[in-house]
Automatic annotation (TrEMBL):
One of its GO terms (molecular function) is tRNA pseudouridine(38-40) synthase activity. Residues 297-436 form the Pseudouridine synthase I TruA alpha/beta domain. Belongs to the tRNA pseudouridine synthase TruA family. It comes from Cyclotella cryptica. SUPFAM superfamilies: Pseudouridine synthase (SSF55120). This is tRNA pseudouridine synthase.
Amino acid sequence: MLSRNWRRYAFAVQYHGGSSLGFTYQGPKGENCIVYQPGSDNTVIQADLRGFESVEGRIRRALNRLVGSDNYKNIQVSSRTDRGVHAWRNTFQVDIRSRRLRCPSEAAIIPEKSDRNLTSKQWNPRNLVHGLNFYLARLPSFLLEDEPYAETRNDVSRLSTSENQRFGQTFDYNSNIRILSAGFAPNIRVPNRSYDPNLPEDAENNPKDLEWDVRFTATKRTYAYQILHSFDPVGDGDNDCQHLYSTASYHFYPFLHDKVWRIHEKRSKRHHAKYSSNLNPTTTSSLDIEAMNRAGKYLIGTHDFTSFRGKGCQRASPVVTIDDLWCAAENYRGDLGGGILNAVSKKLTFCTNQNEDVSPHLDTMLRIPDALQLITIVISGNSFLYHQVRNVAACLVEVGRGKMNPEDVKSILDKRNRACAPGMAPPQGLFLVDVEHGDFRF
């Protein structure tokens, strides 16, 4: 149970995972530092992590400036993400001590340095959102030896009423992390999933129930995996002019290399017998979305997902439930957003017939290849095994490329052997889209 003057807050956070070391804090010797090889007396560098830190580590630094390092504790996240994985909306909790503010009516008669004219006041969730974003956008990438705020902001009890953390909107978000919303965590008790009935019930070591917990109260998690697929046309991309060569393999890579799994292949006849001997060689181009959706249906429901379980998974049981899984594809026209596309489109509208479709002219002007497709795999459920979503995505891609039949996915699932399934998809294409907590909205 939380002690007096402490309150639990729930936060929603959005971040780009390409520049972070995952969500979980790695400690002062695990991020934003130089890691030396053990036994080398700090002479042999194992990894240079200066400028790289976890999402939680950056949030901790912002909290140090906002509330003070001694005035928050117990940061827990609902869904831990790996390095390179993005979050459209992840959730976490923090216990924050109430602020001690001066009472204006007593300030005139009691000396300012006395603590007798202090009163406690809970942090407003709105101020926490604006305050954290204010500091997240201004934190330096490199953590100095001793940041000055570590000592000066430990005690916020001396803040005057005018300094009551009334942060306005932050106009320059130059950070890859943004706090979306916050709220007071429900004042309820939830069952402790780690409770052992064979041991004596103990409030500290073996409690039967716990305070509201952001991880255990999550009722639905939704992930999306993005793939930018392209292929060279027949003739391997050669043009009529022998001195020219064009391929779709490099288009948009500078803008999307850290947000999609980039797959490029030639149109060819493929036959792969590792998983099935019933495959017929076919001429392929884009991924077969219909086959991927048929394969995904075998994974919906409650199953033993040992074949899709990542090494090092600490979950006690490999049995989980997938509520929904589907794949979709669309012709990709650029991640530069509607600004450039709309501007060019309006220009073309004035130059052509008002009723004419400008899409062909737009693709020609921006030189967008016809062979680019954005494939999205969406999967949702209550919880997932370690690396399960990335392993499932890689398996579905093999089906889409014609290297597996959709029915082979069921066979792999039933074998309960990780070695029988394809490898793991890279992290940069994975997005944690949303985490729901039942009726609790924040």
